């Protein structure tokens, strides 16, 4: 398994971002285009396996590095053990989340010697890309959209679902990183973790952009109409910190 030596590791913001982008591309390919091959390689009968993305846009399922400590942060260990105990989509989504965490840890390990402004710029460049989780789950990122009639950017707007059920959102859900079919089919409630359902009322936090069942955050459609900017309980509690 080639992870590259520390002496030849990327040093500048641009080099680190290129390394991140290439590793991310490899992981995304494993979990999407090459998913059948990836699934087959994650045999639960084998030892602890990890998913690696490499700087040449490739991916690899392999045992963890033997060096202690390793030259680079290691990805999640034992991804193969849960393969047959979960729904395939849920398993892939879980690996995507862990892969996002690993990719960030590698980037900021390489950027440990960067100054404050460079670290901020690096994260901004990374944040402009959709996460592996968003790509794998086809999740849409909420975008704030100006209300052309009132001129208010944060006024709640209504969006009608396919079945005609009216749902109120504090933000309009626009296309972000993929095609515009099944716009919210993989959205999870930020409170209970439940899947999106067109016959339930949902609301998005204008701060963290997570979606919630109205019932989980005690917001009704009528109440949402009077909220100019909705903050979920977690973001509201951070205000005083």
TrEMBL record:
Its main location: nucleus. One of its GO terms (molecular function) is transcription cis-regulatory region binding. PROSITE patterns: ZF_PHD_1 (PS01359), ZF_PHD_2 (PS50016). It is found in: Nucleus. Gene3D superfamilies: Zinc/RING finger domain, C3HC4 (zinc finger). GO terms for biological process: chromatin organization; regulation of DNA-templated transcription. Keywords: Chromatin regulator, Metal-binding, Nucleus, Transcription, Transcription regulation, Zinc, Zinc-finger. Residues 186-238 form the PHD-type domain. SUPFAM superfamilies: FYVE/PHD zinc finger. One of its GO terms (cellular component) is nucleus. PANTHER family: CPG BINDING PROTEIN, PHD FINGER PROTEIN ALFIN-LIKE 2. The PHD-type zinc finger mediates the binding to H3K4me3. Interacts with H3K4me3 and to a lesser extent with H3K4me2. Histone-binding component that specifically recognizes H3 tails trimethylated on 'Lys-4' (H3K4me3), which mark transcription start sites of virtually all active genes. This is PHD finger protein ALFIN-LIKE.
